[in-house]
């Protein structure tokens, strides 16, 4: 069983505490750009090592989790916000957006 205290039975720092302190130190020494770069590298590495099915599965799990924790009003609100953002965007028509989305999708399925 994991020990969630800051020290273990030997009086030494736990992994949890060491990780927390290391994360704090790293955040003091690095800026937003650093985190963006390592996030990009991590995403590319994950993409290289996992296929389409992996992303479908995690997307399904995430969608199910969101569905379980949010009600109808949540989806109405985000749909409304998305519609507002869409109407305030670059002026691209729905037809143009649909065409571009269809082209992108067909390229991904090739």
Quick structural summary:
By secondary structure, the protein is mainly alpha-helical.
Describe this structure in words.
- InterPro entries: Stress-induced_KGG_rpt (IPR019626), Stress/Virulence-Domain (IPR052590).
- This is General stress protein.
- 75% of the residues lie in helices and 0% in strands.
- The longest helix has 18 residues.
- 0% of the residues are buried.
- It is elongated.
- It is an all-alpha fold and 110 residues long.
Tell me the number of helical segments per DSSP (H or I, 4 or more residues long): 5
Write the H/E string, N to C: HHHHH
Largest sheet: none
Structural class by helix and strand composition: mainly alpha
Organism: Paenibacillus bovis
Protein name: General stress protein
Biased composition (Low complexity): 1-10
Pfam families: KGG
Core attributes:
mainly alpha, 110 residues, General stress protein
Task: Please describe the topology of this protein.
Blueprint: H1 15-29, H2 32-49, H3 52-69, H4 72-87, H5 94-109
Protein name: General stress protein
Biased composition (Low complexity): 1-10
InterPro entries: Stress-induced_KGG_rpt, Stress/Virulence-Domain
């Amino acid at each position: 069983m994991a020990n969630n205290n800051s020290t273990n039975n030997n009086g030494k720092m736990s992994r949890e505490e060491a990780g927390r302190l290391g994360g704090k130190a790293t955040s003091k020494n690095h800026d937003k750009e650093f985190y963006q770069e390592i996030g990009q590298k991590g995403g590319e590495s994950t993409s290289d090592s996992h296929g389409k099915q992996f992303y479908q599965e995690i997307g399904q799990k995430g969608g199910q989790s969101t569905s379980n924790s949010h009600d109808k009003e949540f989806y109405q609100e985000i749909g409304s916000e998305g519609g507002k953002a869409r109407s305030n965007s670059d002026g691209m028509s729905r037809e143009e957006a649909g065409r571009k989305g269809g082209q992108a999708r067909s390229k991904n399925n090739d």
